[in-house]
Structure to design on (444 residues):
């Protein structure tokens, strides 16, 4: 009987369902997604808005200037009793004033500005988190398509092998060396594989649609990866080292720590309610009287200017400041508690992701051994069937076991790759450069 040549990963499905689109690497698809993905674009717009909002706080430290002006027209009636004389006179006024002020000592404004600086940092942390989420979503969709292609390829290879076994059973039945039972068992297994092929085709179609939705291109075709046996274990090989890195890299931890600093500055602002404020003020005004005033009938023009220091010292505000300080101190404690909770959550997520990668690599090694054993079992059953010590169902079962093992091994290898990215996302070190290293590592 002809020995089956198993197709390499993704090759069979690529020949069957590959569209005309050129295959792209994972990094290329990530760049496409950055320009298209609505979720990331929304996060980028929010980042820009947060930057502008933070800049608004600078206004409390900068000079303020304004121009005011006005025009009036008045009428006055005067009447003298002896002799009775009525005078009707009109006059007008035009005025303009330029005023400016510069804060000299406003502790609340300085605290607000420091908060704005922290808020700018928070906007960056949020964008980094969104970028890491996009990397993971693109990678998940990318590997899902490759795994679906492998599954379809292995299912079609199993269909071919089952078809050969069915043909052999029919021939043996015709010459009288086997019973009709062998033929019917092979036919039943062949029909089952046909159903599995239909399911695999539909699953691949759905996975491709999901990838198209992320990258914004129709008929997206992932570039098949090279050898997946060269994926190294996590480095450093210590989960606590990954946890320690999250203290300075995790966007969630950094944002929670920034929340503590903002809360402390809010207390500083509240305490500023007891402190004085000092401003430098200046103004310059011009007034023009047209056709006189109420007391004169002549045009006149006057100018005035002043400069000085404005001092304001709050004395009592009904205990509002004291209670505001108490409120902000309680919010400080809440922010510190939230920071500790975030640290614990991130640490747990990092450890889970680390052991997930380690376990996945052990599973890959176990499945590689199972694949080799399943191949040996299939060869032995085929030989036993030829010499009459094995029956047809033994060969069919061995074939099914081999291809299921190959499918599971393929999925496990992709899970390990994705696990590496999830580990870096968990501790906050995931970057687009990781996709470059992955492409280099897995180059064909």
């Amino acid at each position: 009987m002809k020995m089956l040549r198993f197709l390499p990963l993704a090759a069979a499905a690529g020949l069957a369902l590959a569209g005309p689109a050129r295959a792209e690497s994972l990094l290329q698809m990530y760049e496409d997604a950055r320009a298209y993905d609505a979720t990331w674009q929304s996060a980028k717009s929010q980042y820009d808005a947060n930057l502008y909002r933070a800049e608004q706080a600078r206004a409390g430290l900068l000079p303020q200037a304004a121009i005011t002006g006005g025009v009036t027209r008045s009428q006055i009636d005067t009447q003298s009793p002896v002799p009775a004389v009525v005078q009707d006179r009109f006059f007008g006024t035009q005025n303009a004033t330029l005023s400016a002020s510069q804060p000299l000592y406003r502790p609340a404004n300085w605290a607000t500005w420091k908060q704005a600086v922290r808020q700018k940092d928070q906007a960056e942390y949020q964008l980094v988190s969104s970028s890491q989420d996009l990397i993971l979503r693109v990678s998940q969709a990318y590997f899902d398509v490759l795994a679906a292609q492998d599954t379809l390829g292995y299912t079609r290879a199993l269909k071919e092998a089952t078809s050969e076994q069915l043909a052999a059973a029919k021939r043996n039945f015709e010459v009288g060396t086997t019973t009709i039972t062998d033929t019917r068992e092979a036919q039943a297994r062949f029909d089952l594989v046909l159903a599995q092929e239909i399911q695999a085709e539909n699953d691949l179609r759905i996975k491709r649609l999901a990838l198209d939705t992320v990258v914004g291109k129709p008929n997206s075709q992932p570039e098949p990866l090279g050898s997946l046996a060269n994926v190294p274990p996590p480095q450093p090989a210590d989960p606590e080292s990954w946890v320690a890195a999250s203290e300075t890299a995790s966007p969630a931890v950094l944002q929670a720590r920034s929340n503590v600093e903002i809360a402390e500055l809010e207390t500083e602002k509240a305490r500023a309610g007891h402190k004085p404020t000092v401003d430098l003020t200046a103004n310059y005004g011009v007034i023009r009287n047209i056709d006189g005033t109420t007391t004169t009938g002549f045009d006149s023009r006057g100018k005035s200017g002043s400069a000085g220091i404005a001092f304001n010292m709050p004395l009592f505000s009904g205990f509002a400041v004291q209670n505001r300080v108490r409120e902000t101190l309680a919010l400080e404690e809440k922010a510190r508690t939230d920071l500790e909770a975030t640290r614990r959550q991130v640490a747990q997520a990092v450890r889970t992701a680390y052991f997930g990668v380690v376990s996945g690599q052990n599973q890959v090694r176990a499945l590689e051994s199972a694949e080799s054993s399943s191949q040996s079992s299939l060869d032995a059953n085929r030989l036993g069937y030829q010499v009459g010590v094995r029956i047809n169902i033994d060969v069919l079962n061995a074939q099914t076991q081999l291809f299921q093992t190959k499918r599971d091994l393929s999925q496990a290898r992709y899970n390990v790759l994705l696990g590496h990215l999830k580990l870096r996302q968990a501790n906050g070190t995931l970057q687009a450069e990781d996709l470059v290293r992955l492409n280099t590592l897995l180059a064909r």
